[in-house]
Amino acid sequence: MRGVPEQIEIRTGSEARSGPGSGAEPKASAAVVRDALGVGVAVGLSGFAFGVTSAGAGLSVLQTCALSLLVFTGASQFALVGALAAGGNPFTAAAGAFFLGVRNAFYGLRLSGLLGLPRSVRPLAAHWVIDETSAVALAQPDRRTARLGFTVTGLSLYALWNLTTLVGALGASALGDTAAWGLDAAGPAVFLALLAPMLRGTVERAAAGLGALLVLGCLPLLPAGVPVLVAALAAPAVLAVQGLRARRTTEEGGVR
C-alpha cells in the first residue's frame, strides 16, 4: 500500500510458524466478516418494509426499486415516501430526504482518510457510505480491517436491501390496500428502529426529542413534508445550547 509505512519483521524456524501473533490476522478478519454480515443481514431485511411502504404511497415497483438502487439510504427513502403518502409536494418530500442524507457526507469525510481507497473506486464506494457501513468501519483497529468491514457490510446490505425492497413492493401490490392490513405503519416503525441505536448520549436524545415535538406541533399547521424540514432545526438548536453551556462552564472555571 503506497504512502503507508510497513514494518517488516523476519523470523526464522519455529518462530515463523508459531511465533506470537501467528493466526491473529485470519481470526480478526473472520470476526470482522461475521460482524459485518450480521449488520448487513439485520438491516437489509428492513428493505421489505420500505418496499411495502413505497408501494402503499402510490409508487410503482420500478420507482420503488430505483429508489433503493440509486438512493440507498434508508432514512431518506422512508422520509420521501412517507411525505408522498401524506399528500406532500414531491419537491418538499425530496428536500426532507436530502437533508436527512446530508449526514452521509460527513461520514465520507471521516472514512476517506481511514480507508484510503484509490481514486478510481471512490465514486462507487461513496454510494455505500451510510450509517451501518460507517459504524462497522470506524470500529476497526486498522485500515485493513476497516476496508474489509466496510466492503462486506456495504455489499451484503446493498444486495439484501434491494432484494427485499423488490419483494416488499411486489407483495404490497398483491395485497392491495396496505392500510387495510396495517402495513402503512411498517415504515415509521423501521425508521424508529434504525434511529434508536444512535441515541446514545444526552445531546442526541435532546435533538431527537425536540425534533419530535417540532413535527407534532407543525403537523396540523403545515403541508405534508414541511414538518420534517422544520424538525431539522432541532440539531443546531441543541448544539447551540450545548455550546453556550460549555462556554459558561469554562468562564466560571476561569473566574474561580
Question: What does this protein structure show overall?
Answer:
Mean pLDDT is 79; it is low at 1-20. The protein has helices at 14-18, 24-44, 47-56, 61-70, 74-85, 90-101, 103-115, 122-126, 131-138, 143-175, 178-181, 186-195, 202-218, 226-231, 234-255. The chain folds into two domains: 34-198, no CATH class; 200-251, no CATH class. α3 crosses α4, α9 (131-138) packs antiparallel against α10 and α13 packs across α15 (234-255). The longest helix has 33 residues, at 143-175. It has 256 residues and is mainly alpha-helical.
Salient structural properties:
single chain, disordered N terminus, 0% strand, 256 residues, mainly alpha, 73% helix, flat
In DSSP terms, counting alpha (H) and pi (I) runs of 4 or more, how many helices? 15
Order of helices and strands: HHHHHHHHHHHHHHH
Euclidean distance between termini CA atoms: 52 Å
**Total E-strand runs:** 0
Structural class: mainly alpha
Which outline best applies?
A: flat
| Beta-strand proportion | under 5%
**Largest β-sheet summary:** none
Mean pLDDT over all positions: 79
What's the number of domains? 2
Helical proportion, percent range: over 70%
Low-confidence stretches: 1-20
What is the C-alpha radius of gyration, as a whole number of Å? 22 Å
Organism: Streptomyces bingchenggensis (strain BCW-1)
Subcellular location: Cell membrane
Region (Disordered): 1-26
Protein name: AzlC family protein
Q: Short description, anyone?
A:
With 256 residues, this protein is an all-alpha fold.
Task: Itemize the secondary structure elements and their pairings.
Layout: H1 14-18, H2 24-44, H3 47-56, H4 61-70, H5 74-85, H6 90-101, H7 103-115, H8 122-126, H9 131-138, H10 143-175, H11 178-181, H12 186-195, H13 202-218, H14 226-231, H15 234-255
Helix pairs in contact: 2-10, 3-4, 3-5, 3-10, 4-10, 5-6, 5-12, 7-9, 9-10, 13-15
Organism: Streptomyces bingchenggensis (strain BCW-1)
Family: Belongs to the AzlC family.
Keywords: Cell membrane, Membrane, Transmembrane, Transmembrane helix, Transport
